[in-house]
Design brief:
This protein is mainly beta. It contains 1 helix and 23 strands. The strands form 2 sheets. Strands 1, 2, 3, 4, 5, 6, 7, 8, 9, 10, 11, 12, 13 and 14 form a 14-stranded antiparallel β-sheet that branches. A 9-stranded antiparallel β-sheet has the order 18-17-16-15-23-22-21-20-19, with no helix packed on it. InterPro entries: DUF2804.
């Protein structure tokens, strides 16, 4: 595993290349972020063991980046996705008191007016339209989010305390693919945010990010849960998922006052046809017992035959507890957070 870095704010993690000398990724849960993917050296083969063509190598690679900021009164979220044939982005602001959702979205065929970060810790991901733009820039253990639109504008910096403990892992996906995921919740947030030309105070806001890339399944689906918030004097966060990274490990973890704890596999129980009913999340060992109460959702359906997506991301509140490996308990008593249910054919 890569060595863990303890450094001053603003410094980069130690160099760590995902694709190794033999042309294959290093698998496992890492103690620091990958600094270079090394995609050009990945030896990609078909399920019949033949070298994949240049077209297939390009078309099968996917990448997306997501940033969220949670406050007791509101939630902000933004995403950029590159599925090769199409680049997309969205951003929204959910106001809890009025149950209102302010949003904009962008679609660009074949990556026009868009690009993705070449590294999980450096570079710039961006998608632009005629009157709006989303930019996400990783900078070591900091993440910059910039939004420009008629109603929603932001220039925010998400910062991890040091020593920083992000979740970083790479696992096999399907027969011949892999997925690298890097996430970190309960980050400090500074900067400026305006909605409808009105400034929004950031006091008490906490953020999280998601960088995911790799050769994913042609048809895939996942369930996902996220929280960044406070429990009394504790700063808490978690990332829970099912459907993608589950070959030998999971991407389930939580943070308590900056310390990362790995968590067991979790079952998601909910009714897609009754979208306002609570979700139940639980682990077989009993360590995770959570309920999510949805309050609003961003939904998008696209069916083009070759490409399809059924995307539902919910804003809501989390209730329950997570028992940690050292006997401490993470308690959720209505903190705002996110849940997601997504089917994709890409």
């Amino acid at each position: 595993m890569a060595a863990f870095l303890e450094s001053e704010p603003g410094l980069q993690p130690d160099p760590f290349r995902l694709i190794q000398a033999a042309g294959q990724p290093q698998y496992g849960i890492f103690n620091q972020p990958v600094t270079e993917l090394g995609l050009a050296d990945f030896i990609y083969r078909t399920p019949m063991d033949k070298l994949a063509s240049r077209w297939v190598r390009w078309a099968h690679y996917k990448q997306f980046q997501f940033v969220s900021v949670c406050h007791a009164d509101w939630i902000l979220a933004a995403a950029i996705a590159d599925i090769r044939y199409l680049s997309s982005g969205f951003a929204y602001f959910y106001q809890r008191s009025s149950a209102s959702l302010t949003e904009f979205k962008l679609l660009q065929p074949l990556g026009r007016r868009s690009k993705m970060s070449p590294s999980p810790v450096a570079g710039l991901a961006q998608i632009a339209g005629a009157k709006s733009r989303i930019s996400i820039e990783p900078m070591g253990y900091h993440w910059q989010l910039s939004l420009q639109s008629t109603e929603l504008n932001a220039n925010l910096l998400l910062s991890a305390g040091l020593p920083a403990e992000p979740l970083a892992l790479c696992l096999p996906t399907g027969y011949n693919g892999w997925t690298y995921t890097q996430k970190h919740n309960a980050l400090q947030v500074t900067g400026e945010l305006t909605v409808g030309q009105q400034p929004v105070a950031l006091d008490g806001a906490l953020g999280g990010y998601d960088f995911s890339a790799g050769y994913m399944r042609r048809e895939t689906s996942w369930r996902w849960a996220s929280l960044s918030g406070y429990s009394g004097n504790d700063v808490i966060g978690f990332n829970l998922a099912a459907g993608v990274n589950e070959t030998g490990a999971t991407e389930n973890c939580c943070w308590l006052n900056g310390k990362r704890y790995l968590l067991p596999p979790v079952q998601f129980s909910f009714n897609r046809q009754q979208v306002d009913t609570p979700w139940q999340l639980f682990s077989a060992c009993g360590a995770v017992q959570l309920q999510f109460i949805p309050a609003a959702r961003r939904q998008e359906r696209l069916n083009l035959g070759v490409l399809a997506s059924n995307f539902r991301q919910y804003c809501g509140s989390w209730h329950g507890q997570i028992m940690l490996s050292d006997g401490l308990q993470l308690s959720c008593n209505g903190q705002p957070g996110l849940a997601e249910d997504h089917f994709a054919r890409w």
